[in-house]
Amino acid sequence: MKRIPHSVYSTLFGVVHLALGVNIALAIVALPLIVLLVTTDPSLSWPLLALAAVPTGMGIAAAFGTFRAHADGEQSVIRTFFRQLGSLWRRSLVLSAIVVAIAVVAAVDVFVLVPTGVGAIFAPLLVVIALLAVGAGIVGMVALTEDPRARIADVLRISLIICVRRWPFTLVSFAAIAVQAAVIVQAPALGIGLTSAACLYVVWAGARYALRPALRPVSS
Fold first, then answer.
1. Which of 6, 30, 47, 216 meets the CB 3.0–4.6 Å disulfide criterion with 56?
2. Predicted pLDDT of residue 9
């Protein structure tokens, strides 16, 4: 019987270590959002959920930075996550606030306009705006980890272009997020404790690949 190489076990342990470490660190940063989701009715507490989602964006950016460091050979996870958080928190917080504000305003306007006659005209446009904001925000968080020197205005502009031009990667990100949301609804402990890192890794990998044309001049 052929023995399994030691490198396979090492790789498997590294993946499990990365996933668990990112899940734990992300849960710490996103604790206010998690508590609100578990203890309140989202249909009534959505303003507080929106506020809590803003700092959660910092954790997502730190997770993306941790994935990048791990791909470059970094072995530590928790320490790397919080090091990334320390270097990215200001810019990721600004980007997260912009994305959440646009998405929330668009969503509220949709619910207001749907019962009216003009809802059929403007509601689809508002939904598209919200989706574009989220898609650009995802790409933007990855861009911040790839080029910390980039200005937020440039990040937003390039991310919006990338998420539209390379829309298949954006759709994959949305699909991963939808699956993760379904898991959290059905089994919150499983979604928060185990599958969050896997979802974010898929999103990060797709967005990073989509960003390659924009990052090539930076790395040259």
1. 30
2. 42
